[in-house]
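So, is this right?
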Amino acid sequence: MISMQDYLGPWAKSKDLTPARRANAARLLTAVNTLLMGAMQEKIPLPINPKTKSQISGETYGGFRPQDCPQGSPNSAHKEGLAVDIYDPSGAIDAWLQNSPAAQKKYEELGLYFEHPSKTSGWSHWGLRRPPSGKRFFYP
């Protein structure tokens, strides 16, 4: 499971972490951890990223991002506490999301959206922001 400390990483004391963004992050992590529990129940591998020591992908910017982060637009979901990149080196998590009826039911209930796996090799982008297309799996 992903803790708030894992999600915020080195940005826990950032001036950009407003009360609204912290509330978004709490809401996000509740949804994400609920879905991760479903993956565990279906025996989907949930590896730990050796760089972040958590299930968050990348080296520094897979969770919350401050406004001056070079990755993402100023209004990116990561910068609003509404998205996280899940470490998925084998693609097993993305395959589960796309193929498991139980996962599909759960993420629809939770209001989660995902970047299309063809755009996220080695990780899986999960977020609460509904994309303009309205599709669960969207192209960034």
